[in-house]
Design a protein that fits this description.
The chain has a domain of about 120 residues. Helices cover about 25% and strands about 35% of the residues. The protein has 2 helices and 14 strands. A 7-stranded antiparallel β-sheet has the order 4-1-6-7-10-13-14, with no helix packed on it. A 7-stranded mixed β-sheet has the order 3-2-5-8-9-11-12, with no helix packed on it. The longest helix is centred in the N-terminal third of the chain and has 28 residues. About 20% of the residues are buried.
């Protein structure tokens, strides 16, 4: 009797150990929260590096920012929030935004100032004080009042006509080369 009691007890202990160890592995394997990195630029105050506020606390470059955080810039600072593959958001001086993000999208509620999307692989939705939600692409900005504008992009968009001339010249060269090499005989596969 005593032997069967200890046998049941040891089997129960082994089963409990197996259940606890497997559930803890599943819990530890779950994906973590997305973390963004803050980069602050601006004028130093009293010899201190520039700072912004994250959830009401002073924050400097390199600080981690979690989803559902409120970032506020001062009149002398601006902030860039790098959200991994989701994108990079810039807040101009005197701006406040509540940022909600994951690995596929970024949502911001802009209550003051201006927000610019510097780069994004996902969607960036910005809700302004007028209650409207706007989807922004890389290079576009919006103010808290809802006024949006595309940032001027330098580079290939300024010289589009050069690419048209190159493509047209290449097409003309191919046509001329084909017309010069043709001797008038047409080869047929049927004999």
């Amino acid at each position: 009797m005593n032997k069967s009691f200890w046998m049941r007890r040891s089997i129960s202990a082994c089963i409990i150990f197996a259940i606890v160890s497997t559930t803890s592995m599943v819990a530890l394997a779950s994906p973590g929260r997305m973390i963004a990195e803050l980069t602050v630029s601006g004028k130093p105050v009293n010899g201190e590096p520039p700072f912004v506020f994250v959830n009401g606390e002073q924050a400097r470059s390199g600080r981690s920012v979690f989803s559902s955080s409120t970032v506020s810039t001062t009149e002398d600072t601006s902030a860039i929030v790098g959200i991994g593959k989701s994108g990079r958001i810039e807040l101009a001086p005197n701006s406040t935004a509540n940022l909600i993000f994951d690995d596929k999208s970024v949502e911001a509620e802009l209550t003051s100032g201006q927000l610019t999307v510097q780069g994004s692989l996902g969607t960036v939705k910005v809700r302004t004080k007028d209650g409207k939600t706007t989807i922004l692409n890389a290079g576009e900005s919006i103010t808290a009042s809802g006024e949006g504008r595309a940032a001027r992009q330098t580079g290939s968009s300024d010289y589009w006509w050069v690419w048209v001339l190159v493509a047209g010249g290449a097409a003309a060269a191919i046509i001329i080369a084909l017309s010069q090499s043709s001797d008038g005989n047409v080869a047929s596969t049927n004999r």
